[in-house]
């Protein structure tokens, strides 16, 4: 799992530019599924077929994209003004190193005449790539180019931290689940989705095409276990979380109860999660066509949408075990 996570979190892939992530995942799962396709939006769809004539279609989704910064203007001195791609906090991005698709790196800073840091906003910030003029900067970066955090993954004990854990950690869990599930009475459709961070877009279109009987997304969630954090009953290392609700979905009781049942049968530690804001691909899946019973397995993650998102190895491995236990049995 560690090597896979190092590889996936190190790939450039902001919303709308997920092609390198898609190619890496394709290489990881070839030979473990019956078919792999890419749709118009760029979603990677991998199918494990079943010999069961009454097989239910189970859609599993994890998003490939990460948040980013998109260049909106280059001033006369070569500094890049930018806007957000997804949920970017000015405080999380301040003085961070970022990298563009072509390898150009820069540092994010702010206008020093700002008299109150509480008023810090993205429109008062810029990326410095070391250029001395607009012309020099334009040789390396164009309007519309996007940058992402440059923070290679590191490890401390069982804890992994770095950029893009949201949601390359979920992608890694699905890749390992594909390898783990040997046979299923269900037809399993694994979807590595695009543009989740800007509105669950890839999940919306792929769910419409697949028309699944049940939907399960795998994504990170916040924790409540750091000093003076917002109270939340999710702790890093206490097991994957079975989502009850977030801002995008109230999870279907059938799916939620199935996850809890399988976890308890297998002795897999789990937590229950209520996320007060934010959403996942299940927010789009459950509204597809006439509706799809949907749920979420969440990976506890500290410092979400920062350059150093932190997850726990045991939570990742137990998420794979739980998904495997769910998928290897018939879903009624």
How would you describe what is shown here?
The chain is globular. It has helices at 2-9, 19-29, 90-93, 134-138, 165-180, 201-210, 253-266, 282-285, 313-327; strands spanning 35-38, 44-48, 57-63, 68-74, 80-85, 97-100, 105-110, 125-128, 146-149, 154-156, 159-162, 187-193, 214-221, 241-245, 271-274, 294-300, 309-312. It has nine helices and 17 strands. It has 332 residues and is α+β, with helices and mostly antiparallel strands. Helix content is 26%, strand content 27%. A hairpin with a 2-residue loop joins strand 10 (154-156) and strand 11 (159-162).
The appropriate CATH architecture of the largest domain is 3-Layer(aba) Sandwich
- Distance from N terminus to C terminus (CA atoms, Å) equals 31 Å
Secondary-structure-derived class: alpha+beta
Mean pLDDT: 96
CATH topology of the largest domain: Aminopeptidase
CATH superfamily of the largest domain: Zn peptidases
Strand content: 25-35%
Radius of gyration: 20 Å
Any key phrases for this structure?
single chain, 332 residues, alpha+beta, Aminopeptidase, Elongation Factor Tu (Ef-tu), domain 3, 2 domains, 6-stranded antiparallel sheet, 27% strand, globular
Q: Mind sketching the topology for me?
A:
Layout: H1 2-9, H2 19-29, E1 35-38, E2 44-48, E3 57-63, E4 68-74, E5 80-85, H3 90-93, E6 97-100, E7 105-110, E8 125-128, H4 134-138, E9 146-149, E10 154-156, E11 159-162, H5 165-180, E12 187-193, H6 201-210, E13 214-221, E14 241-245, H7 253-266, E15 271-274, H8 282-285, E16 294-300, E17 309-312, H9 313-327
Parallel strand pairs: 3-12, 3-13, 13-16, 14-15
Antiparallel strand pairs: 1-2, 2-12, 4-5, 4-9, 6-7, 6-9, 7-8, 10-11, 11-17, 14-16
């Amino acid at each position: 799992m560690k090597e896979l996570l190092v590889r996936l979190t190190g790939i450039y892939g902001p919303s709308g530019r997920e092609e390198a992530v898609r190619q890496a995942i394709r290489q990881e799962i070839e030979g473990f599924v019956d078919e792999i396709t890419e749709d118009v939006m760029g979603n990677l769809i991998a199918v494990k077929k079943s010999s069961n004539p009454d097989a239910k279609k189970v859609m599993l989704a994890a998003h490939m994209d990460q948040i980013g910064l998109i260049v909106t203007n280059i001033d006369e001195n070569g500094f890049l003004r930018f806007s957000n791609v997804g949920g970017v906090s000015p405080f999380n991005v301040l003085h961070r190193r970022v990298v563009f698709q072509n390898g150009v790196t820069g540092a994010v800073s702010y206008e020093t005449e700002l008299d109150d840091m509480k008023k810090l906003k993205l429109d008062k910030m810029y990326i410095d790539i070391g250029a001395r003029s607009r012309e020099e900067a334009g040789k390396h970066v164009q309007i519309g180019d996007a940058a992402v955090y440059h923070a290679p993954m590191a490890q401390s004990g069982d804890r992994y931290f770095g950029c893009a854990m949201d949601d390359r950690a979920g992608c890694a869990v699905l890749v390992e689940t594909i390898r783990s599930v040997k046979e299923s009475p269900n037809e399993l459709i694994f979807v590595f989705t695009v543009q989740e961070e800007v509105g669950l877009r890839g999940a919306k279109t792929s769910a419409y095409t697949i028309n699944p009987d049940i939907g399960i997304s795998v994504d990170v969630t916040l924790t409540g276990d750091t000093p003076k954090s917002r109270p939340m009953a999710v702790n890093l290392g206490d097991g994957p979380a079975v989502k009850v609700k977030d801002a995008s979905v109230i999870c279907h009781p059938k799916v939620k109860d199935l996850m809890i049942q399988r976890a308890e049968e297998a002795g897999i530690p789990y937590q229950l999660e209520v996320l007060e804001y934010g959403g996942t691909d299940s927010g789009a899946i459950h509204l597809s066509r006439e509706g799809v019973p949907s749920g979420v397995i969440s990976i506890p993650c500290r410092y979400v949408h920062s350059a150093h998102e932190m997850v726990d190895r045991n939570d990742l491995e137990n998420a794979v075990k739980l998904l495997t236990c769910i998928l290897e049995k018939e879903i009624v």
